[in-house]
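Entry:
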Amino acid sequence: MKNLFKIKNLTLILSLFVLLISCNNDDNTVTPVDNSITGLALKTPDLSILVQALQRAELATTLQTSGTYTVFAPTNTAFTAFLATTPYATINDVPKEALTQILLNHVISTKLMATDLTNGYIKTLAKGTASSTNTLSMYVNTTAGVKLNGGATVTTPNVLASNGVIHVVDKVIGLPTIVTHATANPNFTSLVGALTGQGQPDFVSVLSGTGPFTVFAPTNAAFTALNTELAPGGIAGVSAANLTKVLQYHVVSPANVLAATLTEGQIVTPILTPAQTFTIQLSGGAKIKDANNRISNIVITDVQCSNGVIHAIDKVLLPIL
C-alpha cells in the first residue's frame, strides 16, 4: 500500500512539473517580429495613410512577403497634400486601380540604398496607358539630396527592412507625363525653354494630354551645337513659326515607339504640318537622318511616361523650312 501511495505521489509531482514547464513555455512564447516593409510602415505613425493605401490596393501583403524592394514612402502630410489636389476626401475614396498604379510608382523591384542612387533613370513597377510592356521611368537627381521626378525629396533614407529598404519622401509621386520627365531632367532645360518660349503653341498642355506621344528630345548639348551651326544669328535668329515646326518635327503621335521596335530604314512621320519625315538608321547604333540629311544619335532610350515615351538625341532635327 505504501508503494502504491508513493507511486501516486510521484505521478502527481511529475504531472505538476510538466504543467509548470508548459506554463513557463507559454509565458516565454516569442511573437515573430515583422520587419518587412509593410511591418515597419505599420509601426510608423507618420506612414499610417500609406498603410491604408497599401491595404486598399491589396499591396500590403506583397510588401510583407519575400522579395526585394525599394519603396519611396510618402508621409501622412504628403498624402494629405496629394488628396487636396483631387476630388477625393480620403485615400479610400481614390479609385482602386488608379491608387494601385500610383503606389506602384513608388516601388522599385530591387534594393537600392541611398548611395546606389545616381543621376539618371530607374524603373518603377507602375504602368501608364501608353505601353503594355514598358513600366514607368523615374528620374533620380542627386545634385542636392535625392529628388525624384523633379518633385518628391527623400527626407529619411535607408530604413532597412527584411525584404528591402524604405526611403521616406515628402510628396506623393504622381504618374509622370512627357512634360514631367522633360522638366525633371536638367539635361532638357533648353528643350523646355524652347517649348515654352514666346510665340509657341501650348506644348505643355498638348504633351500633358492623353497621347500617346513619342518624343525625340534634344539634349542641352544638342541645342548648343545647333546654336553654333546656325551662326552668326544662332537659334535667336529662327522665327517663332519656324521654331514651332522644328519642335513639332520631334514629336510622333499617336505612338509609343520603343527602341526595340525601331527598324533599319524606318520612315517616321512626326506631327509637323505639312508632313515631312525622317529616317531611322541602326548600323553602328541607333541614329536619325533628318530631312536635311543631318545625323543625330539616339543617346537615351525608352524613358517611359504615362502618356508616351522619350528618346534623347544629341542633335536637333531640322525639317525643310
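Confidence is low (pLDDT under 50) at residues 1-26.
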